[in-house]
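The aim of this short unit is practical: by the end, you should be able to scan a pair of folded records and say something sensible about each. We start with the first protein, listed as its amino acid sequence and then its C-alpha cells.
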Amino acid sequence: MTKMTAGQALAKVLESWQIDHLYGITADSINNTVDGLYQEREQIKYIQVRHEEIGALAAVADAKLTGKIGVSFGSAGPGSVHLLNGLYDAKMDKVPVLALVGQSATEIMNTNFFQEMNQDPVFADVAEFHKQVTNAAQIPYVVDEAIRSAYATHSVSVVILPDDLSGQTIDFDGFKTAPLAKVMQKPVLDSADVTTVAAKLQAAEHPIMWVGQGARGQREAVVQVAEQFNLPVLTTAPATGVMPTDHPLFMGSRGRLGTKAAFEVSQAADLVLFVGTNYPFARFLPATIKFIQVNNNLADLGKQRDADQTVLADAGEFLTALAATKITRPETTFVQAAKQDKANWDKWLIQLAEDDHAGLAAEGVMAAIKAAATPDAVFGLDVGNNTEWAIRQLPFNQQQRFAMSAWYGTMGFGLPAGLAAKLSYPDQQVWSISGDGGYAMVMPDLLTEVKYQLPVINVVLENKALGYIGHEKIAAGQAPYGIDLIGADWAGMAENMGAIGLKATNLSELKAAMAKIAQLQAAGNKLPIVLDAKIKNVDPIDTSFMPVDPTNFDADTIASYRQQYALDEATQPALSTLMQELA
C-alpha cells in the first residue's frame, strides 16, 4: 500500500472523478486538506476566491454548465456557513455539488473552542448526504461515497473534516470501483402513450408544446416534433436554447422573463404538451386547457397541475417516438398568427434597443452583446431585470449556453458563473451579465479573475435601483422605498483591481466599447473586462400578465397596459386580432 496524508488521498479521489479544479479559502481548520491539494497541484487546481459564497456559487455554475460535479470548501464556523447560499442554489436546481467543510481538530472538539460549532445540523436541510469523518482512513472512502450520492440524487453532499485527521498518514492506493457519474436507468416508454398523444395533438385546434430542462440535448427532436405537428413552442426560462431562439415556431418563455407571444399562445391554447418540465406556474394557466405531461420522474407527474394524460418517459425517447409516428398537422391560422406575434415582438425589442435619446436602453446593451457573441459563447446570468433582458434577447441558436440561479434566485450569481465558465471553457468567449445590485455583492472576486487571468467580459447594467424588486412594489401598490442605489465608477474600480474597465452611456460609446472588446480578444487578452453600462432606469415590460386581447379584456384595461409600456397596438396587435386578419 502507498502511504500518503489523508488530505492527499482526498485529492486523488477528486482526480479519479475527473475534477480538475475547486474553490475555497484556506484557514486553520482546513489547512491540512488544502495541503493535500498542494501535493496534487499538477492535476487539480485550487482556485482561491475572496469569499466562500462565491466559491460555492462557482461550483454550482460548474455543475450547471458541464454536468460534472462542482466542488468548493470552507473552514469551520463562518467559512462553512458562507457556503450555504451556493449550496441551497444547487439543492433547488438539483445539480451535483460537493462541499468539503473544515472542523476543529478532534482533541479540541466539544470544548467550546474558537469557531467550533456543531456543523452537521447546519447542513442537514441543504444536503442529501452529510457526514463527519471520525478517523483519517475514512476520508477518501467517505468523499468517494459523497460524490456518488451527489450524482445519483442530483443533490448536495457535505463532508465534514476535522483538520488533524486530514494531516495524518494513511495507506491508500485508490479504488477499483468505476467512477460512474451518470444514472443510466430510464423508464420504459409505452408506445400506446405515444399514439394517444399524437392523436390528441392532431385533433386539437390550438395545441402548443412546452419543454423544460429534461429536454436539454434534444434540440433536433424538439424541432422535428414542432415542425411536424406545427406546434408553437415555449420553454421554461432555464431551458432557453433547447429550441433555437431564432426558430419561427419558438415563442420564448412565459412569465416575468417571457414574451408577448408566449403569454398569448399559452392563454389561447386548448392543449399543452409539457415535456421534461415540472413548470411551477402551470397551475395558473386557464382551466379549460387540456394538459399532457411527459416526465421521467414519477413524483413530478401531476405535481403542479392535474394532468389529463401523463407519460412516464425520457424526453428524448418520447420526442423521437412521437416524430416516428409520421403524423402531421397543417399550419393553421393559429400557428401563422403565433409566428407573426413573435416576429412583431422581436421587431419591437430592436426598436427599443435603437432608441437612446433619453439614455442608454438595456435592450441596446443586449443587442450589442448578441451581435458580439460567438457561436459557442457562454453566459453567466445574474438575478433581476438583467435576467429578463438577457433571456429575451441573447442568442441561443447555435452552441451557446448559460447558467442562472433559476429556482433559488440568488443575486450575485453572474460573476461567479462567468468565472466558473472560463475555467471550464478556457478557449470560448465568456460573458457575465449583472445588475449593479447583484454585481456589488460579489465584485471583490473580480480579483480572482485577475489573479487566474480569466478574460471574462463582465457586463454591469447600472440603473441605480433594485429594479426587479421595484416592479414588485409597483405591482403591489407599495411605495418604492428601499430600492434606490448609489452609482459607482465600476469601470474605474475594475482598472484599480487590475482588470480592464470600459464605460458606455449611449449607443455611440457602447459601439466603441464593443469594438475595443473585439480588439482585445483578437490580441489574446488575458485580463477580465468590465463593461460599465449606464442604462436608464425603465421598468421592463411585465409579460407575466398581458391584458391586450379585446376578446377577453375591456378597452380601459387594455389602454392602461399599453400606455404603461408604450406597447403600440398598430405594431403589437393581439394574437386574436392577428388570427382574425388571417382568417
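Turning to the second protein, read its sequence before its C-alpha cells, just as you did above.
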Amino acid sequence: MDIMTADTRAYRQGEPAYFTGSVWLEPVIEAPDPARARALRVTFAPGARTAWHTHPLGQTLYVLSGVGRVATRGGPVRVIRAGDTVWFAPGEEHWHGAAPDQVMCHLAIQEGLDGQVADWLEQVSDADYTA
C-alpha cells in the first residue's frame, strides 16, 4: 500500500505546447508498472482548453465542477457539466476545456500503453472552440 497525502501532491501549470489558456494539473494516481492507471484532476480557467490529442487506450472524463466544452475531430462542440462523464475511444482525436465564461474541473482517467498516455497534436483554433 502507498498513501499519497494531499499535502504532498503539487499542482503544476499545463504546458503551453498542450494547452491554450491557464490550466492546472494535479496528479491523482500514476500507478507503477505493470498497472496502467493514470488520473489527473485538471482545472481550466474560462476559455482554456487542451490541444487536439488522442489516447492509445481511450480516456474518461468525469466533470467535478463548472461547465466545459468537448469535441471530436469533425464533430460538434458539446457542453459538459458537473456530474457528466465523457468517454473518448482509443485513437479518437478530441479536445476538452472550460466554457468561455466558466471555470471547469474534471478528473481525467486514462491508461498508459508502453509508457505513452497521450499523443499531442496541434492547438485548437478559436474557430474550432467557438463552432
